[in-house]
Amino acid sequence: MSQKLETKYGLPEKVVFCKRCVMSNQRPASAVEFKHTAQSKKVTLRINEEGVCDACLHADEKARIDWKRREDELLKLLDKYRRKDGQYDCMVPGSGGKDSAYQAHVLKYKYGMNPLTVTWPPILYTDYGYKNFKNWIDVGGFDNLSFNRNGKTMKLLTRLGIENLFHPFQTFMLGQKNLAPKLAIKMGIPLIFYGENEAEYGNPIADNAKSLRDKSYYMFENLDEIFLGGVSIKELMEKYNVRLNDLMSFLPADASSLEKAAIEVHYLGYYLRWTPEEVYYYAVENTGFQARPFRTQGTYSKYNSIDDKIDDLHYYTTFIKFGIGRATYDASQEIRNKHITREEGVALVKKFDGEFPDKYFKEIMDYLEMKPERFMELADQFRSPHLWAKVNDEWKLRHNVWQGGVDD
Question: Which pLDDT belongs to residue 303?
Fold first, then answer.
């Protein structure tokens, strides 16, 4: 009888791959959360009895949607909030990547809205990412508030996120998500637009966000229940000598303010058919967006998530923890959009998934004051035994999408 292998992070014991795309059921479906440790229970991508994942089923639904009717819904929503006095009537969070460039431009120039763009800057800007950010504002023509958070605290929380969760982006993602609602409350802007609908990736979130009260990660009610980088607020203050004021920019708005403000959050991708490649071409033409000047390590693409040097490392950590690398994410999306076949997707995953992102690695380690050897030690510690096996002193996945894993 075979020995039962330890399964970390609340992941499913059996690894199953979608029969349409190349994604597995090991993909966490909850995007951003305050959690205690990396072992916290996660909601993962569901695959039905026919072997098809939620994200692919959503792609089927998109093909049946009456997009003219959805746009009419959007027009009705915008008419409710559009201002004629020149004041801001909606907010678009982003960094000038293809998605935020597209949504801000469409809202302003096609639908006549007055968007204020707001930016939680990357941890370490890439040169081309910063250029895209500047083009978004200067070529696209937008007002922007860029929030320069406490760099010392950001560095600490990023390092703790790696050490405790093997998640270098957790606190960045929280700050990015929480910035817009808090600014909207302070500035009296009642409408926030994000880009792609999170249902595109199989996340168990309503198709179109309602009020902020429906989003638990936006609410700041009990400090004792909030952890940043896997560390409680109390411990951060006592052990790391961090003041509460240093942490406030990372925390969500308080519930009473949200209740009073009645801010609405919507995904533009719910109303307009969202195709990443078309969004990319639109951003190039209208806001001066430029793709990365070289292939992104870990995948085959050049234009997705390219503004932060830590982005590539983040996707490498998802490969270590969940067996899912950046090529899997990119190929799955392109298969659903019918830009490539599943066979092509499998080949791309086989070639690029798990490639180590060494281009910015030393710079990142220097910034975090972490030894590269320590990062590699952590990588081994965070591998789940049900996903990984060591063969001839080399780590191998037990299961992969091309059925070439150690246990396939």
Answer: 92
